[in-house]
Amino acid sequence: LAALPPPGVAVPAASKPVLLINPRSGDGKAERVGLVEAARSRGIECHEFGPGIDLRQLAQDAVTAGADVVGVAGGDGSQAIVADVVSRADAQMVCVPVGTRNHFAMDLGLDRADPVAALEAFGDARLKTVDLARVNGQAFLNNVSMGVYGSVVQSASYRERKVETAMEKLPTLLENPPDLRFMGPDGEPHTTVHIVHVSNNPYLLDVRGAGGRPSLRTGELGIVTAELGGPAAVTDMFARAAVGLLSSASGFNSWTADRFEVDADGLIEAGIDGEAIELTPPAVFTIEPGVLQVRIPTTAIGRSPAAFVPEVRHAAAELVRRAFLPTDHWQPLPRR
Questions:
Q1: Which pLDDT does position 192 carry in this prediction?
Q2: CA distances (Å), 116 to each of 76, 156, 211, 301, in order?
């Protein structure tokens, strides 16, 4: 890693830094690590948000008041809201990972276990430009899942019983494929898939099971679909995913594009960066290359762990894992 040049370009400390904090995110992680105190000791203006508080308006107010750097300490959904506001303004963003999964932070190359360290990005830092994806105009940083996962995440029991809820609903969802229609990379219509997963840049996987996006600036959506013939097909897909051979599974397909549409007769149940949502069809996915400026601490690696995995392949094992084993927190395996 030491031989690699530092990511991004050097930038000076923020002149008017603002940090928006969700004290409930990650089961209260911000409070446990003393984030507010650490931020204020660095001269960073702090505002808390939560139920009943409009995060988008908070971010917009900060920018309007002259903030040149706006940070957000929250989950990936909150990160996306602030990213949307910052991308439309002459401002820069800081990602402080206090959520449950922090996938955006992982692919930025931040230390997800040390949110206080992320505050160093308000000082002298490195600036990266990354892509921002949208579905029907709504920004997302990681992915949107439709079909099986999109239906499961709607359940009131999902947050507390993720795996159990998925397993309970799976038989019915397999027997009755969701109403989703799209054109595949072959130019042919597809109407019987169980999973459609669209990501802001494609995910990769190798035989050691390392998931993530090696780059957040390819300018391409990663698209993954899967048609599951029954319980045996699900078992086969898990087995292939475990050894990095998911792309050879029957009914699996993946490709990239800068635009993608999914149609349906009714509202499309989906999970957008892990949050339940219903999309009005057609769901139109687009990507905006390099519109988001993100600051990285000079001490951070600044690259996704997936960027260091040799011989990675386009994959949706990350999709399958998130859909059916959403409590799995991936960590890079040690190099040998």
A1: 86
A2: 17, 32, 25, 15
Q: How far is CA 34 from CA 22, 58, 336, in A?
A: 13, 22, 36
Nearest to 96 by CA among 81, 114, 77: 114
Q: Is 238 exposed, middle or buried (0-12, 13-18, 19+ CB in 10 A)?
A: middle
One domain for residues 126 and 174: no
Tokens of 282: 């057609």
Residue 38 is part of a domain; what is its CATH number?
3.40.50.10330
CA geometry: angle at 200 spanning 182 and 117, to 5°? Answer: 160
Same domain, yes or no: 61 and 194: no
Q: Domain residues for 199?
A: 140-289+307-324
Indicate the pTM of the whole model: 0.84
pLDDT digit string, tens, across residues 45-88: 999 999 999 999 999 999 999 999 999 999 999 999 999 999 99
Task: Please indicate, yes or no, whether residues 115 and 233 belong to a single structural domain of this protein.
Answer: no
Q: How many domains does the chain have?
A: 2
pLDDT of residue 48: 96
pLDDT digits (tens, 9 = 90+) for 177-219: 788 999 999 899 999 888 899 999 999 755 444 468 999 999 9
Q: Does the residue 332 lie in any domain? A: no
Backbone phi and psi for residue 112, each to the nearest 5 degrees, phi listed first: -70, -20
Which two three-digit tokens encode residue 330?
Answer: 């991936």
